[in-house]
From TrEMBL:
Keywords: DNA-binding. InterPro entries: Homeodomain-like_sf, HTH_TetR, TetR. This is Transcriptional regulator, TetR family. Residues 30-49 bind DNA. Residues 7-67 form the HTH tetR-type domain. It comes from the Bacteria. The lineage of its organism: Bacteria, Pseudomonadati, Bacteroidota, Cytophagia, Cytophagales. SUPFAM superfamilies: Homeodomain-like.
């Protein structure tokens, strides 16, 4: 029987921090809370991450790497509509996996200047990657010509929806659209008016195939 790999202390700290930040927020968790749950000394934790900013920087690097993988690992065999839909599903799952970051992003950027700089550079990278996604949708004749006039604004709105989806769920608690999959549906609602007939047909086929949520997550 193969032995399970032992998680390094540094990685264990990272995973425990994400878990606790998700539960109570960044400001509600200290290094002593994290060390206590892992069962290590406060000094041991400080050896790996001297400050809270160091820890959040490491978490953001992990997030950036995972998100870059989502963008880069596209299937060149399937249509750009199918790739885009699968990306949206993964984006929504990503929001829940690191929900503290999206809920506390304003506080994080104000409190931790180095994290703020990294966030800004990441946003510029995501902007370029989003533009490439839409270029492929246009090349495959899924997006109509009327899209060109509003391209930058549409992409900006989509990035705002993704970035602040969980925040609006916390604030607009009496509104609809709170279930998983609603973020994906909302983004398609933004894009629908700009789809060609070919694009609409392909979108319906893809949604019939996958639905709006990640299958693995439904078994939680």
């Amino acid at each position: 029987m193969e032995k399970s790999k032992k998680i390094k202390t540094k990685d264990k700290i990272l995973l425990t921090a994400i878990k606790q930040y998700n539960e109570v927020g960044v400001q509600g968790v200290t290094s002593r809370h994290i060390a206590g749950e892992i069962g290590i000394s406060h000094g041991n934790l400080d050896y790996h991450y001297k400050t809270k900013e160091d820890l959040i920087l490491a978490i953001h690097e992990k997030m950036r790497e995972e998100m870059s993988g989502i963008y880069e690992n596209q299937n060149t065999i399937i249509s750009s509509i199918e790739n885009f839909h699968l990306l949206l599903i993964q984006f929504e799952e990503f929001q829940y996996r690191y929900r503290f970051f999206n809920l506390d992003v304003l506080e994080i950027t104000r409190s931790f200047p180095e994290v703020s700089k990294l966030i800004q550079s990441t946003l510029e990278l995501r902007k370029s990657q989003t533009e490439l996604l839409f270029e492929r949708l246009i090349e495959e004749n899924f997006i109509a010509s009327n899209y060109a006039e509003e391209a930058e604004r549409i992409q900006h709105i989509i990035r705002m929806v993704i970035s602040f989806w969980l925040s609006q769920r916390e604030v607009l608690i009496t509104y609809n659209f709170t279930e998983k999959g609603e973020m994906v549906k909302s983004i398609w609602a933004i894009i629908n008016p700009y789809l060609t007939e070919k694009g609409k047909e392909e979108k319906e086929k893809v949604i019939a195939k996958y639905g709006y949520t990640q299958i693995e997550s439904n078994n939680e």
